[in-house]
Amino acid sequence: MKPFLLLGLCLLPGALLAAEPQPAPAAKTSSHAMVHAATIQWGDAPPSLPPGAQAFVLAGDPGKPGPFAIRLKAPPGYRVPRHWHPTDEQVTVVEGDVTLSMGETTDAHEADFVPGDYVMLPAHMQHEASTKNGAVVQINSTGPFEINYINPADDPRKQAAAQTK
């Protein structure tokens, strides 16, 4: 019996070491992004936004789960009707002027923003955006990107579908 006890005692430290929690393998880090403003090649904005704007994805994929950053270029007089998103939206004005009406229509407050200004719109906060002279804004959020218009008739996707019928 003693040899089995001795063998067990000899193996115990190894078993205890093997049972210690091991560090998890390092998570794959996402790649970095570097974008020079002069190299941006604007494309059409997503169909969920009114026609006329252009967009460029800086990082991430707005259509998939996870963080993303996009730039949106709006022409003079552009307006995105009152809507909300299921995730927080961070907006930084890069160029031009932006007016945001934030909150439900009955309690909405409006503010004007210029280059360098920043706004954090919490998830589900109703808001609308417009520009008098045109603007470029950077939007940081978490995907998948969704936009829910308060008035369904304002949704450009529904307007486009109605025009194709």
Question: Can you tell me about this structure?
Answer:
It is a single chain. The protein has a single domain (42-164), classed as Jelly Rolls (Sandwich), CATH 2.60.120. 16% of the residues lie in helices and 36% in strands. It contains two helices and eleven strands; from the N terminus they run αβββββββββββα. It has helices at 2-19, 156-164; strands spanning 43-44, 54-59, 66-74, 79-84, 89-96, 98-102, 109-113, 118-121, 127-130, 135-143, 148-149. The strands form two sheets. Strands 1-2-3-10-5-8 form a six-stranded antiparallel beta sheet, with no helix packed on it. Strands 7-6-9-4-11 form a five-stranded antiparallel beta sheet, with no helix packed on it. A hairpin with a 6-residue loop joins strand 2 (54-59) and strand 3. It is globular, with a radius of gyration of 26 Å. Pfam families: Cupin_7 (PF12973). Residues 1-18 form the signal peptide. Residues 31-137 form the ChrR-like cupin domain.
